[in-house]
Write a structure and sequence with these properties.
Shape: globular
Strand order of the largest sheet: 5-4-3-2-1-6-8-7
Helix content: 25-40%
Number of strands: 14
Radius of gyration: 22 Å
Structural class: alpha/beta
Order of helices and strands: EEEEEHEEHHEHHHEEEHHHHHEHHHEEH
Number of helices: 15
Length: about 400
Amino acid sequence: MTPVLVINSGSSSFKYQLIDMVDERVLASGLVERIGEEGGSATHTVFFHTAEGPAPAVRKATSTIEASIPTHTAGFDVMTRAFAEHGPSLEEDPPIAVGHRVVHGGARFFEPTLITALVEINIDELAVLAPLHNPANLQGITAAKKAFPDVPHVAVFDTAFHQTLPAAAYTYAIDAELAAAHRVRRYGFHGTSHKFVSEAVARFVDRPLAELRQIVFHLGNGASVAAIEGGASVETSMGLTPLEGLVMGTRSGDLDPAVLLHLARRAGMTVDDLDTLLNKRSGMLGLAGVSDMRDIQAGIERGDEAAVLAFEVYVHRLRAYAGAYLAQLGGVDVIAFTAGVGENVPAVREQALATLGFAGVRVDPDRNASRERGIRVISTDDSTVTVLVVPTDEELEIARQTLQVARG
């Protein structure tokens, strides 16, 4: 086996997957949560892959551990104990490398990077651009290096894929010296997912990645869209932070900056108040009182006017970006939907593309409504643009990039 351990660390939890890179099978996954809080716990799932019958089958077994977990280091102790007690054995097949999701790499990191002391310093310095994420990512790195000191650790940055943006796309029209002094520019996020999906698209349609013009919608609680030309990101909706762009579960997306000035002056809101408003009390939650698209759809079925409006605002923004990126690319070959909403809500896909018939985009209602899993076509046979649903796998993409660095 060639196991790679993937870590996605938050401030009070971390997720992990152990993936055998020989055949890219997930061997185990888990979640350690409530770190530094009362009632710490961990879940650990082992996957058993068999080749019996007409197709390979997967059986899984999940165990739960309740324990005090005061620090991330203690969390990794709990994780390694779960591997020892429930498998697979890390003593028999230790990971050859550990890959870490890091949210913000600024303009410094444009590829997966071997983590050194200097890289850790840079990740810490970039925390000013992602104060909720980079410090937590760094905590996971520190704890993981204590648990696995003898293997390479690799940082895979959410922003890295978008480092190909042209200057015209990443530059904000504010005072240039001020922007340079404070590193104000568009960075983009969800890059790991956009990279994975765009490459999966090329394999699926059996065309060279370098020939394709793609629009990829990553629609989850956080949401972004990217225009990808020849495998390179040339435009994306998120900006300096993950707040800009599409309407999201609790984030506003695009907003007239003067709204903030107005609320500061008229409502007496502080910078922290405004931060909380835009990141935690806006988006679908702010419009309809719920952030989950399933709850929005249930509200629409009940005739809830707030839910109807929230959905219309959500779709209106998707259409605006689809049209803008069609223009930026000069046409499109493939449009792909991914992540929780993108993969599972047919109404969003249908309505997002409903006005693009002029560009040759035609969605087949039956294909779109299908609950079939895996990559699938939802456009009609005569659509000049192929429309796909593509399940994303950010952990696998991190593992692939980690293996690439580990092997030199």
